[in-house]
């Protein structure tokens, strides 16, 4: 066991930096899993048929009710009538038979005198039958033919036209086997309305029984295609996720019970797949959160406090969304009032823009799951979009806290962005909204914007105090001349105070030129020489003319007093609970430089004097801001000591000081590049030329000495 620990412990020691990111990632991943468990897990119910539901149950999934769909398809198919095709050949054939009868009768009548046909003999009927087709002879009785021969020619012609027209109309509508009699009746009705005599009508009615035959036959292919089309047009019966299946107090009928069973809310086994999917989602969130924490740790020199801040803010964002989701359902839009933008503002102020943007995307993704009305499988895309725009707007609108009205401007900007997104949602929706709804939603967005600004300002001091994270607002407070240490510096070491102010101005300008934190450099420069207040008279800028206490001290002791002001300053700052960044500037602003004046003086007295005894303890500057303060702290007194600070002289001194620090290795630990050092040199020179410019020699008045 001991051997295993001996192998494991070195691994933890060598990779302890990465555990700074791994542990928060695991915590956030577990938190995401636990808070979203209710949103993806399907609740099950023990319900019996014909019982009364004790609560409203909604479908957790979108699924097709195949049984109901099949039933509707059967109903649609059965509703399709049989399709029949009308035979034009049969229609034409029956019309031709009728025309043939009338033509033959008229032909026989035309061949005989009218008087000769008053008494018709069987010979004429035989002659008529000889002119007709076999089918007509077999179907039409001889009595009907004789009766037709006895009718006047004009009546026959008119009757033939009426009968043919009526027959054609009936046959074109289609005559099936079961409605032949109906077709005959239609013809009889047409004949009854005509003006022909009763005898002729009786003959034609008998003729109709011969002429009306089946001419519409069942069309299997057309019927099958019609049924197929009808089945295709039936929309599937789908139970949508979130759809109410049974309401509280409603009786569970067979149909409702089958729907509950279909969507899986009666199953006591549950569905493991949503849990597995949630675990996968939590793992993805944890991975990206861990990578973000790792990047923050690298940027912040492996400082644990920013990681703690990010973890706390992320946990706060998750809890706020979760609590808000309990009051949200599909009938309201309470997610609009969630002050998620406050988290984005705090992340930007405490950590930075990039981290705030990346984490805002993660929060928006979580919102899509969190505000799904606890319906498994659903995502609230509108909430995700709203949260994303709200957070990104807050990040963009939130400028430096050094501006007095920045929070008010941010709140106004958030109100506009929230209103624009809400109006966009309303315009894209197919639902109709009243003006009351529109103003209600806009009001919720306005409340969210105001709450975000208020919470951001209220929570920021807490994070600053408990976590010790330095923000622009804290720096502004520290730059107030009424701060106890600055008042002490002004009273006890006025020369040092003036020097610190000059260094602060130059340092801030140089930092902004290379993208460093100018406000941090300014405030750090205010306090960088605070250690001189312990023995202010031992520093030349605070000495009265011809009163230098170093004249009575050996060089080594004088050097120790000068060197000690960095540690004295750090101790003072620690005692006043100043931020670590300010303390580091006080400790590192002289790097490990040599107190050259006293070293040379000691060297004259003792050639074996060690140079290391006259160097500052350091450490060397580790940030851009500290390195710039280090450079400006050396440049400002050197230029101020010039009798005639011409631009050429200033350029020469600044260049020599920076090159000297580079060659002496004092800037080795700083992240400044040679290109940035060149920019700093030009910026510092321009600032010093503006401060130590040439003065106009005003003419003296007569009598002035």
Automatic annotation (TrEMBL):
SUPFAM superfamilies: HD-domain/PDEase-like. The chain crosses the membrane at residues 272-290, 302-321, 333-352, 359-377, 406-427, 439-463. The keyword Membrane applies. Residues 492-647 form the HD/PDEase domain. The keyword Transmembrane helix applies. Keywords: Membrane, Transmembrane, Transmembrane helix. InterPro entries: HD/PDEase_dom, HD_domain, HDIG_dom, Metal-dep_PHydrolase_7TM_extra, Metal-dep_PHydrolase_7TM_intra, PgpH_phosphodiesterase. Pfam families: 7TM-7TMR_HD, 7TMR-HDED, HD. NCBIfam families: HDIG. This is HD family phosphohydrolase. It comes from Oceanobacillus aidingensis.
